[in-house]
Amino acid sequence: MSLRVFLWIIKIKMVQFAFIVTVLISGTVMASAEESVVHSATLLDQVLQHIDNHQDEFVQTLSDWIAIQSDSSNSQLRGEINQMLDITVQKLKQIGAMVELADAGSYQLPNGSSETLPQVILAELKKDPNKPTVCIYGHVDVQPASMSDGWATYPYNLTELNGNLYGRGATDNKGPVLAWLHAVEAYQALNQELPVNIKFIIEAMEEVGSPGLDQVLTMKRDTFFSDVDYIVISDNIWLSRKPALTYGTRGNCYFLVEVESSKRDLHSGVFGGAVHEAMTDLIALLGSLVDASGRILIPGINECVTPLTEEEKELYKNIEFDIEAHIKNIGAKRFLQDTKENVLLHLWRYPSLSIHGIEGAFSSSGTKTVIPAKVIGKFSIRQVPDMDPLVVEKQVTEYLNKIFAERNSPNTLKVSMVIGVKPWVADPSDPQYTAGRRAVKKVFNVEPDMIREGSTIPIANAFQNALKKRVMMLPIGGFDDGEHSQNEKISRYNYIQGTKLFATYFHELSKL
Prior knowledge:
Blueprint: H1 3-53, H2 55-66, H3 78-94, E1 98-102, E2 106-108, E3 114-116, E4 120-124, E5 133-139, E6 159-161, E7 164-166, H4 174-189, E8 197-203, H5 213-220, E9 230-233, E10 244-249, E11 251-260, E12 266-267, H6 268-271, H7 278-287, H8 310-314, H9 323-330, H10 340-349, E13 352-359, E14 370-371, E15 374-383, H11 389-406, E16 412-421, E17 424-425, H12 431-444, E18 449-453, H13 458-466, E19 470-473, E20 489-491, H14 492-510
């Protein structure tokens, strides 16, 4: 055998050997990866089982939180607010979080005085630089509540009836905040490493507009929030009994329309028919804002709305929404629209105008025959893309002044916009929405509805615009939970399954 032939045979053998080694290594890696996925899924199942096994403890903790009357609209209850913040800090420290209390500045009270705002909680669990970081927003203040409002049970005593947990703050927002904390606890109880880095921002003034929160975001933008990849909010509800992910909310412009006719109230028997009454002018102005079909009559408003595309319209067809069930739930006769798609479009995609009340008018029982000297009408316009509050303010002011001038009234008119919040819209193809969809599918065994929210949640815009962070809303509250209303509740099912959803969301986010 020649030397050349011998070397050629050796070369072939080496190539064959290398191929066999590669196959063996590749198989080992693939098997290892498959084992890792199976192992990870098994660990997650253990976490979910732990949540099931400890649900009574989680309900008891919610009961402890509901008992605190953290009504942020009542300055006399600041002690309760501070107690609620203290308990929240204690809970965060129990799960090993490093907690910082950020100053939010001062707040102007209705009587003209000011007070120091409650601090905002910033908390952070141990970080791994190789993992994504998700920041969870929540609030622990609540709307006012009393038995005289029509509650069937005492609002600050969590009461379980027919699988529902009744109490002020149960769904808005103490229940969801605790569900996030319990999800973390479940991993820790099993000595499992959290799949992602986790931060919290929790406030106690959301129900009065989150005063001072923008200041905290600006102050902490380059420190606490600098390494945050995703922000998730669970301060809203599902549209139906089917789980949902929320990718948009409407904004809000709130107006005051003040008409003054005299320096003091007048007797209608003495002066009626001889003076231009302020109330008559105001009713005419308010009546000119919207027609019987709900269409806004202010020129330019509807023209600012981004046109609806056929692709977007298709998104509404598969959303679960029972018109009759919703009409029955709110106790109305019918909606302004006849089809599911049109109702949802007018709830989420188109602007709306609502008249809220008249200040200065006689509203008590009885028959007081007074001509009010000054009355203030209140109404709001829900904003949608691409409406701009500053443009809307100009359109409203010019229109009302025109209508008032046509009445040739000697009274004085003042129009002012006291709230101007832009709408919020996220990209539903964003990675964390993928994680959210997968988490819903695993826990509830259905694909979530992709929905918008008709109300306004200003913090979403603040996170997205001020911090330039990606935001997702991951609700666990039911459509009939009655947030802000009498008999607010969250079902035990939603509370516990929601805790599982959050634990699974951590897992799915880590896999992206």
